[in-house]
Specification:
The protein is α/β, with parallel strands linked by helices and 299 residues long. Strands 3, 4, 5, 6, 7, 8, 9, 10 and 11 form a nine-stranded mixed beta sheet that branches. Strands 1-2 form a two-stranded antiparallel sheet. It is elongated. GO terms for molecular function: DNA binding; DNA-binding transcription factor activity.
Length: 299
């Protein structure tokens, strides 16, 4: 059985459009040419890939599975080409890395600076985003690796390697009404405003889950932010919102401005992990970055 790469490329375009006419227009070929592509693929595979109708074509059940195989093949081909080019160029190559917060970005940048000094011909693409989006970018083959936080009960589809552990702490300003409560319980926070990320962020979903587990609604969010920054810490220190910050940020001068709420349910243990695509062929650059990252995360 031989499947021509161009036929597979045309197959994916046909699937994306659902009509031979629009697929042919995008590819600059005729509809009969695309009909021949479908016939060749079905003859070579012995599978009925499409259902034909007056409104166009759509995949059969086995066609859906075949589509996923083609996508996997394309992704693996990309990694193979990257690996071959890396081996040819030795120190050359590109490493595509994602990260989430400012604190993790510092670790990633430090690691990249060491790696780039050792391999001056390499190129880097560094992007920031939310954990789930970075994982999807890896699955689609647009990123090689990502350094992200991992919260309990919120797994990723990507392969992950543990780099370290930390804890998220609920904080308020000094002299906040909650700071004066010597017998504070989580239920006392039910109507208090929070500063949290967007609804789909892991930290916010974790807080929502904790609230629900204690029969509480909310939490009410009066401030949405992307990252924990110095500006956000100053805002928490001057308002009545509750914030959730990494333990490694709770040091002077932050510790002089904020008070950690003694509500153990909201002291959230989490991991820092390195994400990669399941079953990916690791390039030498990826392996070098991983090794340096592990060293840097323990120092």
């Amino acid at each position: 059985m031989y499947l021509h790469p161009r036929d597979l490329e045309y197959f994916l375009v046909i699937v994306s459009h659902g009509r031979l006419s629009s697929a042919a227009a995008e590819l600059g070929v005729t509809q009969p040419a695309l009909s021949k592509v479908i016939n060749r693929l079905e003859m070579e595979t012995g599978l009925l890939l499409f259902e034909r109708g007056i409104h166009g074509v759509r995949l059969t059940g086995v066609g859906q599975e075949f589509k996923q195989s083609v996508l996997d093949l394309q992704t693996q081909h990309h990694y193979s080409v990257s690996l071959i080019n890396e081996l040819k160029a030795k120190q050359a190559g590109i490493l595509r890395v994602g990260t989430t917060s400012v604190s993790r970005e510092a670790l990633v940048v430090k690691t990249l600076s060491i790696l780039m000094a050792r391999r001056p011909a390499m190129r880097v693409r560094l992007v920031s985003g939310q954990s789930d989006w970075l994982c999807s970018e890896i699955e689609e083959g647009r990123l090689d690796l990502a350094v992200v936080p991992s919260y309990p009960g919120l797994p990723f589809n990507c392969e992950q390697q543990i780099l370290g552990k930390d804890q998220m702490l609920p904080v308020v300003r000094q002299f906040h009404p909650l700071a004066r409560n010597s017998s504070l319980k989580i239920q006392d926070l039910e109507k208090m405003p929070w500063a949290l990320g967007a609804p789909n962020t892991a930290a916010r979903r974790t807080i929502i889950s904790i609230y629900k587990a204690h029969g509480m609604s909310g939490p009410p969010v009066s401030l949405e932010m992307t990252y924990v920054t110095e500006s956000l810490l100053s805002l928490i220190a001057s308002t009545d919102v509750i914030g959730l910050i990494p333990q490694n940020l709770f040091r002077r001068p932050v510790a002089d401005m904020l008070y950690v709420l003694p509500v153990k349910e909201l002291h959230i243990d989490r991991l820092t992990v390195l994400l990669s695509r399941n079953g990916a062929q690791w390039t030498p650059l990826m392996e070098s970055f991983q090794q340096l990252l592990k060293i840097g995360s323990t120092t």
